[in-house]
Amino acid sequence: MPSKIETERTIAVVGGGLAGCEAAVQLARRGIAVRLFEMKPGRRSPAHQTDRLAELVCSNSLRSDNPENAVGLLKEELRALGSPILAAADAARVPAGDALAVDRLRFADEVERLVAAEPLIELRHEEITELPDVEAPCLVATGPLTSEPLARAIGEAVGAKALYFYDAIAPIIAAETIDRSIAFAQSRWGKGDGADYLNLPLDREQYERFVRELRAAEKVTPHKFEQARYFEGCLPIELLAERGDDTLRFGPMKPVGLVDPRTGRRPHAVVQLRQEDRAATAYNLVGFQTRLTWPEQRRVLGTLPGLAAAEFVRLGQVHRNTFLDGPRLLDRDLSLRGRPSLFFAGQITGVEGYVESCACGHVAALSVASRLSGARFEPPPAATALGALYRHVTGEAHPDGYAYQPTNVTFSLFPPIPQRLSKGDRRSALVARARREFAAWRADFAATGGPEPRAIAHVSTGLSEVVS
After folding, report:
1. Residue 337 to residues 182, 249, 331, 343: CA-CA distances in angstroms?
2. For the whole model, what pTM was predicted?
3. For labeling, which of 76, 268, 307, 438 is most exposed (least CB within 10 Å)?
């Protein structure tokens, strides 16, 4: 039943996704009583499939775990800070080369267990439809799939319509329906265990036929009043196909680092399938997010080698994601300008990706904890992965006039290295600098009551009631 926060003695976290759960646990570990609101099961967005906390809507991959990659470095920092989301992901890991991919249900189980283990967290399965007008902090982490009533309330609070873009979800296929006489097990460049992915090889003729079928297939189109703006890092495959004959072959269907054991040669193109669960009962089509209609997905994807008899556990779909113009709307502590009690975290701030959402939730929790303890909020240094992402949200990483769009963490968000270095040396220098500055920041805050969990004044003698 729709609810609203009414009284002033609440420390509320709205949204039980990755950012909200990360923030709630971090606050509780600092002695702060939290009421965590999650609208499921009473209400679901069109993209959600379960009633669990921290549901992974799109891929089951948290991307690279290599610290020489920006998102891998971000994971390293979050693990050092005791992130419950990263702990859950590590416990639910499935084979994926040097990437961190998880069994979705096991991951949700682990997150729910960690949330339930905190006695200062009260989980309420209720939809919040209005923003509270109170002095105590409220952290909104409702993600890009914020419900319409709350999205309207946020729009009214910021004095303008929230921005949006469209995201697309890749299909999942039952493992037993993949033709293993065609699919071969191999990781790109032999990473991980060397055989963490299934691969469907295509020759030139098969690839060109598939591109033609994609271009001709029926697509789901946005409403006339909506402008379709996609996140560039997660474009539908049919949109990529429209950009050029070889775009897919140099994108999600790139064959580099793979050799078909039956021919001893690299295929012309390849479709990679990533394990979805620990029992390997289902596989995700890597990079195959799509806006094709469901009948067309079955038909077109069924033309791929090895998928003629494929059964779909989940078909792809398109959904609208809402996010705020962070640099214009949020202060340096991630509170809303003009409404200092309202904090925002996660994808609704314009970060993209599971790990980035978790990171934003973590930093927002540090900001709220600083506010409640009377300390000045000191964000992570710009040269760290956490700090680079923070610079994106607050606008420090962007030139004047930048058209704010969601982004993953990348080394392009980090302050540049002044020396002229090769690409490999530059990346190593960025990582080394990030580690130095992260260690110094963590040590400074540990000495002054910052990011290390510790008991602070119990800020809520009685959490506010939520009424219908």
Report:
1. 57, 45, 6, 10
2. 0.77
3. 268
